Amino acid sequence: MIKWHSTLMALALPLSLPAAAQVQDIYRINDGTFANHVEYHQVDLAPGKEMNLGDFTGAGKITYFYYTDSSEFTGGVPYPGLILKVYWDEATEPSIQVPLWSFFGAMGGKAIDYQSLLTQINHYCYMSYLPMPFSKRARFVVLNDGDKTYSSAAAWGIDYEKNPTFAQEKSRLHAAWNRSNLTQNSKHSILEIKGKGQYIGNFLQVNTNYRSWWGEGDTIFYIDGKMIRHSPGTEDEYGSTWGFERKFSYLNAGYIQMDDNQNRMYRWYVANPVRFQKSLNVEIENQGAVPLVMWDSFMKAKPDFKTNPSSQPSRQDDYTSIAFWYQEGVHPAPDILPFAQRVAPTKDASYSSP
Fold it and tell me: Most buried one in 36, 100, 236, 269, CB count within 10 A?
């Protein structure tokens, strides 16, 4: 347990410190004090309106954030029109701008219980342990950009540490949501940013009609302009190999949805953060394996396949992702797609394979 908390605390410390110096023991006493903001009441939020979840001044670090409402408990589904926006310090634009439920890994309007190192969902309770340092102010806002009034009994809580040492901390948590419905050029962009920081993970939803193995797409990092092919397949990136045979949720990786045509997974780069000094682009290929009935014809068309496995069949599927990263300084989150595009049904892509 001590090692688990030490790893989390390391994420929020200065980007320039060596890894060994970033690890603090959970029992170490410092100059901080514990604080909390919690609410539970009926919420009625009309389209286009916002509400504050919490507004904290001074220097400190968010240590825990949860949200829940009565929608699933009463037999409904989470309202998809809510956007979580988090503002750091004196910024007028949010550094985190994602659908509220997706921030916790509930994508496409469907919550699935799971447990990971940084986030989890337990019986309608959406929980985040992502450390979020700030030097002057932290403001959590929910916007209803949907087409209906959000009306539900809701509860939320934010734990944070007041600590003057964070007045000098430059690292800020950022998060971005993106959807490719359908992918273009057989690739989905997870993140594209400029600056200095470290990428720490993502959630990924893949909806596909491909009847053979769908997960041959590699994750590719472009770090300060240099290309790095990180994995030889989607399952390798998300904590498995030779396909996904079952669902699982572990500390750093999970595959939590195996429904017909729908797949959901996550990956945290905590022990191995993807550090960058000038820029970072993260993308994943949209490729599938070759069905056995098509193998002979495929090999004739792709004679270089044995030496170039990335030449496997390209596809067009529906990919949605939420990326998390720490960056030096406060930066606006990328624009988010309008509500109608976020909730649009998956476009049908037909394939000649079985």
Answer: 100
169, 185, 218 — which closes off a domain? Answer: 169
Mode of pairing for the β-strands spanning 96-99 and 171-181:
parallel
CA distance 119 to 4: 13
Backbone φ and ψ of 236, nearest 5°: -65, -35
Q: What is the pTM of this model?
A: 0.89
List alpha helices for 12-96, DSSP H. 19-22
Cis amide linkage into residue 15, ω under 30° from 0: no
Q: How far apart are CA 166 and CA 169, in angstroms?
A: 5
Residues 5 and 68 in one domain: no
Q: Are 188 and 286 part of one and the same domain?
A: yes
Indicate the number of domains in the chain: 3
Encoded tokens for 132: 């979020």
pLDDT tens-digit readout, 180-189: 999 999 999 9
The predicted-structure confidence for 8-20, as pLDDT tens digits, reads as follows: 444 544 443 333 3
> From start to end of 15-124, where are the E strands?
33-45, 50-57, 60-69, 82-88, 96-99, 114-115, 119-122
